[in-house]
Amino acid sequence: MVGSCHSCDNCTNNHKNYCPKMILTYGAKYYDGTITYGGYSDTMVADEHFIVRIPDNLPLDAAIPLLCAGIKMYSPLRFYGLDKPDFHVGVVGLGGLGHVVVKFAKAMGAEVTVISTSPNKKKESLENLSADSFLVSRDPDQLQAGIGTLDGIIDTVSAQHLLLPLLGLLKTHGKLVLVGAPEKPHELPTFPLL
What we know:
Layout: H1 9-12, E1 26-29, E2 35-37, H2 60-79, E3 88-92, H3 96-107, E4 111-116, H4 122-128, E5 133-136, H5 140-145, E6 150-155, H6 164-169, E7 170-178
Parallel strand pairs: 3-4, 3-6, 4-5, 6-7
Antiparallel strand pairs: 1-2
């Protein structure tokens, strides 16, 4: 985003991304009436509150993912208090966003369990990303063993999938944060939430 009103309740409480007058980086009307073109622009004008200086010694190809997937995954870890060294965080989905969550949660000192439907992702999770454990969500024995062990789960899957088994993995007052955007809404029974 490149602008907001700075005066609504969301803006004054540092939630500018919920501002009803937010100006998106791409395809939005800027204050002067011009349309924003995001990454297709040669130059861009933006409110100084939305500018991030990238250090000269950080290559752009390494910095750019941190400004998109990076902030999308860092924010829920911080906002929901899952950034504590003594917390156990589950990560559902080991695609692009899932990789970023694992790396951030590990860097914050959390214990990390990757949760996937595919047992083929175990080696990558444990060896390449240094996750502490791996759970196959289609294996009832593994789900049973994981009941009540997680302080929070960041679910990055953008396809429709069952949420109820994930709820069972959470400790009392644990947090399930959905950051994937499936085409169809998830089905979630209400009773387990009570």
